[in-house]
Amino acid sequence: MPGYATRHERVPVGGHVYRLRVLSDKQQFSDHDGHSSRLGISSAQWSLFGQIWPSGRLLAQAMHRFDIDGKRILELGCGIGLASLVLQRRGADVVASDMHPLSEPFLAYNSALNELPSVHYRQLRWDVPLPTLGHFELIIASDVLYEPAHSQLLASVIERHAAPNAEILVTDPGRGHSARFSRLLEAQGFELTETRCPMDDQDAPPYRGNLLYYSRNGARVVV
């Protein structure tokens, strides 16, 4: 027995329905070997990776339309990895990353469930450099600024892994930490553009979602 319960969910993105295995609820915790605890994942945070959140849907919708030609793409804090699955279907050069020990098997399962090749995955702690990860022209994330310390941690990851001509796309539900994050990226030479975006296939203008789009050295907005 895995020690946790799952269910299947169907999420439409760009006219295609993605089938996803997710945790059945947010009240679960399974860390028999203490791996999650050693990574700093508390019992309250443990189940968060295994849900489809509104910001994750928003990022997936954006990735259905985003210009990906010639770009190496990194998803930070991928969780279930819906946005990476959308990019994989489009033939993108995408790497999904998270530090949760179950993100990789869930992503592999969901890739197979949608008849896609497994998305390339790297376990990534934001506070531990990983030089072999390399550099990316596009870095994406959804709802990753939910604690004060995350602004600095995320900015440091971007500093290590963003290419000179880079774009950063973050969906944020307005938790209050994006202003500091934007200042940190401005110090790295990024310019911010906020863009409204549909939350799902039925969302009509004016759209409900908000994207934080950062570009450096002439990268252009295509959202």
From TrEMBL:
Subcellular localization(s) per the UniProt record: Cytoplasm
Domain of life: Bacteria
Keywords: Cytoplasm, Methyltransferase, Transferase
One GO BP: methylation
Pfam families in the record: Methyltransf_16
Coiled-coil region: none
GO-annotated molecular function: methyltransferase activity
The EC number(s) this enzyme carries: 2.1.1.60
Stretch forming the signal peptide: none
Major enzyme class: transferase
Entry-linked SUPFAM superfamilies: S-adenosyl-L-methionine-dependent methyltransferases
PANTHER family: CALMODULIN-LYSINE N-METHYLTRANSFERASE
Protein name as catalogued: Calmodulin-lysine N-methyltransferase
Organism from which the protein derives: Dyella kyungheensis
